[in-house]
Amino acid sequence: MNRFTLRRITVALPDSTRNDLFSKESWERLERCGDVRISPGGGTLTDPRAADVLADTDVLVTGWGTTTHGRGLRRLAPRLAALVHTAGSVRTLVDDVDLADGLAVSSQADGNARPVAEYTLAMILLSGKAVFAVQHAYRTHRAPRDAAELLRGRGLYGLRVGVIGASRVGRRVLELLSPFDVEILLHDPLTSAAEAERLGARSVSLDELMARCPVVTLHAPLLETTRGMITARHLGLLPDGATFINTARGALVDQGALVAELTGGRIHAVLDVTEPEVPEGTSPLWDLPNVVLTPHSAGSAGNEVRRLGEGAVREVERLALGQPLAHAIGRDRFSRTA
Question: Per the confidence metrics, is the pTM higher than 0.85?
Answer without folding.
Answer: yes
